């Protein structure tokens, strides 16, 4: 049953992706409504999928690559709905939902096998590590979408070519503010995820960090990038184009580190 709802979710997210992309071009309210409804239906189906999977495995979506990747996509959609409700940025979906679809599509090719887990104190820290990290990643995905929109707008202003897209997207100030706000939420959560991962590591092999070059160092690189963005804004006023470029670089680093750390 979980496989059926998963496939349905993937299809619905594809419809939502196409809808938000088309809406960016034609701005027809009916297209926006269909896209929003489709995404909501997809989130409902996705939630059912995760619940069914958890009932089947006896644990939450945090042990296998398939579960974690699917959960990653789910959290992005949840944060997207919160962001759209608060900021009313109608075009954000065209830059975020395709990412959701691609992430879930990737999970479709991962193994869905599972095994029973040991419900010990070490499992608690691993669960906290992965959950907090994924929520942080999802916030960074929203920042990525806002950053792409910012650079598009900034390029039009810089070149003094105010095309149709300029008048359809929010102002540079709104996009820059959104970029900062979601990173300000995501960075502390990701940091806590990093810390709980270290605690889990201590409890399992008695070392603070796993110095695996392919698994740990990419995560450190991601943390350093977002640390620079977060404190750069607070301390030296690093905002605008630099912050947007940093958010895009950070999310690319996340995809890279995610591949080696989870898969």
UniProtKB/TrEMBL annotation:
Subcellular location: Membrane
Residues in Cytochrome c assembly protein domain copies: 67-260
Cellular component annotations (GO), alphabetically ordered: plasma membrane
Family matches, as InterPro entries: Cyt_c_assembly, Cyt_c_biogenesis_CcsA/CcmC
Membrane topology, record value: Multi-pass membrane protein
Any one of the GO BP annotations: cytochrome complex assembly
Pfam families per the UniProt record, alphabetical: Cytochrom_C_asm
Subcellular location, principal: membrane
Stretches that traverse the bilayer: 6-24, 36-55, 61-82, 94-111, 131-152, 178-200, 220-236, 243-260
Gene Ontology MF terms: heme binding
Keyword terms, alphabetized: Cytochrome c-type biogenesis, Membrane, Transmembrane, Transmembrane helix
PANTHER family the UniProt entry points to: CYTOCHROME B_B6 PROTEIN-RELATED, HEME EXPORTER PROTEIN C
Protein name: Cytochrome c assembly protein domain-containing protein
């Amino acid at each position: 049953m979980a496989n059926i709802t998963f496939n349905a979710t993937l299809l619905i997210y594809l419809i939502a992706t196409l809808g938000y992309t088309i809406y960016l071009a034609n701005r027809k309210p009916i297209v926006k409504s269909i896209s929003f409804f489709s995404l909501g239906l997809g989130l409902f189906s996705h939630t059912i999928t995760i619940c069914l999977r958890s009932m089947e495995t006896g644990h939450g979506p945090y042990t296998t690559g398939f579960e974690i990747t699917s959960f990653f996509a789910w959290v992005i959609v949840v944060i997207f709905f919160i962001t759209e409700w608060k900021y009313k940025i109608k075009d954000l979906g065209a830059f975020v939902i395709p990412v959701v679809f691609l992430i879930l599509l990737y999970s479709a090719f991962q193994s869905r096998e599972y095994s029973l887990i040991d419900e010990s104190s070490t499992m608690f820290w691993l669960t906290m590590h992965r959950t907090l990290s994924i929520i942080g990643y999802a916030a960074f995905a929203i920042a990525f979408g806002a950053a792409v929109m910012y650079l598009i707008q900034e390029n039009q202003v810089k070149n003094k070519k105010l095309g149709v897209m300029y008048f359809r997207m929010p102002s540079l100030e709104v996009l820059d503010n959104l970029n900062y706000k979601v990173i300000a939420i995501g960075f502390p959560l990701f940091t806590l995820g990093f810390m709980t991962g270290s605690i889990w590591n201590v409890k399992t092999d008695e070392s603070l960090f796993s110095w695996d070059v392919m698994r740990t160092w990419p995560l450190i690189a991601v943390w350093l990038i977002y640390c620079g963005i977060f404190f750069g804004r607070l301390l030296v006023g690093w905002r605008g184009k630099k912050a947007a470029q940093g958010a895009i670089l950070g999310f690319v680093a996340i995809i890279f580190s995610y591949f080696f750390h989870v898969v």
